[in-house]
Specification:
- The protein is mostly helical.
- It has one domain.
- Helices cover 93% and strands 0% of the residues.
- It is built from two helices and no strands.
- The protein is elongated and about 45 Å long.
């Protein structure tokens, strides 16, 4: 379903990030970008969890 699709997409994104890190060596930039992405993602998950709790 949708969750499996999200998990698969997330895995592809993470593989892409690690590949870019190895190829370009922009480790710090990518780690910071990943941290920002994860923070935004968790914020969205929190909002969704709150929304689901209310419904």
């Amino acid at each position: 379903g949708l969750l499996a699709l999200l998990i698969a997409a997330n895995r592809i994104i993470m593989q892409g990030i690690s590949h870019m890190m190895r190829r370009e060596g922009l480790r710090e930039t990518l780690v910071n970008r990943a941290k920002g992405y994860i923070e935004r993602k968790f914020r969205v998950h929190k909002m969704l969890a709150m929304y689901w709790a209310m419904t």
